C-alpha cells in the first residue's frame, strides 16, 4: 500500500515529524523524573532538569582562609589562596562575585572590592584571591565570598543510596520494595491456578447453566472494587484474618479472577476440538487432558494474564491500603510509601523522584520484556 | 516469620492446595464415588461427568461469590443502616444525607466532567496515533514508547506530573516544565496549576489521558490493521484523499472497537481514585466519587454514607455491565 497514488512524500514527512513530536511529548515527563533522580537537591531546586546536561550558573558561598594564615607584606596584612581549595569545592570559572549576601554579583572576576572593615579583596576567575588590610585582620573565620560560577553538569547516585540503603524509616524504600514483592507474587500465581480449572470447565465441559455462569463472570468483570471494601474488611475482621498479607492475597486473587477466567476461557475455547476429542477417545481423563494438553497450549494466555495481574497488584494502592496496611505501618507497600512521601517530603524532589523511580523500574522492565503478551492479552480481552 | 518466607510458603501452600484439591477430588469422583467399572459403569461415568464441572468450578465460584457478588448485596444493605446506632435500618437516610452534602455534588460533577473528557480524549488521541504510526518503519518503537505509561502506577504517574506542574515563587527559576514554558511565553507570574479550582481538574485528567492513550492506541491499531485492504484500494481508485479515507472508510469500519475502547476507559474513569488521592486528595474542588467514598469510609468512619456512595458508583457502572453481558451472550450464540 506504500506506493499507492495518494500517499505523497510531503505528507509522509509531516507524519514522521508529528509522530516524533508525540513520542517526545509522551516521554518528556518520565524522562524528567528519571533525570531528576540523579541530581542533588540543590541542582533540582535551582535549575530545571532539562538543563541538567549543560553547565549551569550556580551561587556558591565560599570563605577565604582564616586570619591565622595572614602574613605581613610591607605595610599591609595579606591573606592569599584559592577559594575553591579552601572549601574543597570542585573549581569552576567565576563570573561575578560579592562580599555581601544582599548583592552577590557586585563585582566581576578580577575586580577589587572594599569591605566595611576596610579590607580590599580581589577575586580572580579561577578562584585565586588576595585580601589586603592596613591593620592586622581580626576574627577566627575567613571573609565570606559569594561567587557565581559556571558549574559543569554533575550526576550523582547519592539519592539511590539514600532511598535504598539508608536507615531513615520515612525515606527507605527497601522495606516497602520487599513488601510489594511479597504481596505481588502470590497474588499473581494463585489466581492463575484457580482460574485455569474454572476456565477449562467453562470452555470444554457441557453442563446446565454454563452460559449463565459465563454471563455471571462477564458481569463481575466490571463490578467496581469500591463495593467490596467494607463488606470484605468486616468479614476479614470477623473471621480473624484482620489486616495483613493473607487478606490482601485473598482479595487480589478474587479481584483478578473474573479477568483471568474470561481471558483463559476465550483462549481455551479457541483451541482445536480434534486434539481434545482424540485424547478423550484414547482414554485420557479430564484431569489429564487439562494438565497435559490444555495447560501447555494455553501458555500465551496464561502469560498475558500473569502480566496484567502483576502490573495491577504491583501498582495497586487502594486494596493494599484497605486490606494490608495497619496502624504500625510495618507492611507498607511502595505506592503507599510514595503517597506518604508526597505529604511529608513534598518539596524534596530528589527523594520523591528516586523513590518513584524505584517503584516504576520493575513494572517498566516487565513491560518492555513481555510487551508481546500484554498486547495479546489486551486484544483478547476487548476486540471481538 | 519474615514476610518473604511467609510469601513463599503461601505460594507453595496456595498452589499446592489448589492442585491437591483438583487432583484428589477428581480421584474421589472417579475411583470412590462413581467408579467406571462394575455393574453400573455406564451410569457412573455419566454421573461423574455431571459432577466434574462443578469440582473444577467450585474454588473460583466460591471466591467470586464471596469477594464480588456478596459485597454488592452487603454494600446495598450497609448503605441503609447506621453504624452509630448499632447497624439499625435507617432506610434512605444515608442517601438523603449524602445528597445534601455539597462535597458529594462536587464529586459527582467532577466525575461527569472526567467521564466526558478522558474517554473522548484518550480514544481520539489513541486513534490518531494508531493511524499515524500505521505505516511508519519505526512505528512499533513509537507505539511501544507511547504505550509505556500503562506500566506506570497511578501513584508513580502522579509524582511524574507533579514535577511537571511544580510552581516556584515568581522571579526564581521554575523547575516545573509547564510553568517554565508559561513564564517564558507569557511573561506572567507562575501559576499554581493544581490549586486553581475548576481548571485543576483538567490538569489531573491529563495524567489519566497520558496513561490511557497507549491502551486505546494498541487496540485501535490492531483494528485498523484488520480493515480489508480492498475497501481502501477502492476508495483510492475513486479518488478519495487521505482524510476522506480515514474518516469515511476506516473509522466507520472500526466503530465497534472504538465503542469497546470508550467503555473500557469509562470504567477506569468511574473508579478513578489514586491520581486524585495522591495529587490533591480532593481539595481545591477536585473531589471525585471514589475518593469521596474513601474519605467517608476511612477518615469520617461513616460506613453508611460510604456504602451509599459506592452504590452510586455501581449504578453508574450498571449500563456498561448490562451492555457487556448482552454482548457476550450474543457472541456465544
Automatic annotation (TrEMBL), chain A:
InterPro entries, A to Z: MetI-like, MetI-like_sf
PROSITE patterns: ABC_TM1
Residue ranges of domain ABC transmembrane type-1 in the record: 177-370
Keyword Cell membrane: yes
A UniProt-annotated Pfam family: BPD_transp_1
GO biological process, one term: transmembrane transport
Entry superkingdom: Bacteria
Cellular compartment(s): Cell membrane
Name of the protein in question: Alpha-glucoside transport system permease protein
Main location: membrane
The family this protein is said to belong to: Belongs to the binding-protein-dependent transport system permease family.
UniProt keyword terms in alphabetical order: Cell membrane, Membrane, Transmembrane, Transmembrane helix, Transport
A single Gene Ontology CC term: plasma membrane
Transmembrane segments: 12-35, 183-205, 211-233, 245-264, 351-370
Membrane topology, as annotated: Multi-pass membrane protein
From TrEMBL, chain B:
Pfam family, one: BPD_transp_1
GO biological process: transmembrane transport
GO cellular component, one term: plasma membrane
Membrane topology qualifier: Multi-pass membrane protein
Keyword Cell membrane: yes
Signal peptide extent: none
Database matches in CDD domains: TM_PBP2 (cd06261)
Compartments, as annotated in UniProt: Cell membrane
InterPro entries: ABC_transporter_permease (IPR051393), MetI-like (IPR000515), MetI-like_sf (IPR035906)
Domain ABC transmembrane type-1: 108-324
Top-level taxon in the UniProt lineage: Bacteria
Keywords, sorted A to Z: Cell membrane, Membrane, Transmembrane, Transmembrane helix, Transport
Ranges annotated as spanning the membrane: 6-24, 54-73, 112-133, 145-164, 202-224, 254-279, 303-326
Family assignment from sequence similarity: Belongs to the binding-protein-dependent transport system permease family.
Protein name from the UniProt record: Alpha-glucoside transport system permease protein
The species this protein was found in: Sagittula marina
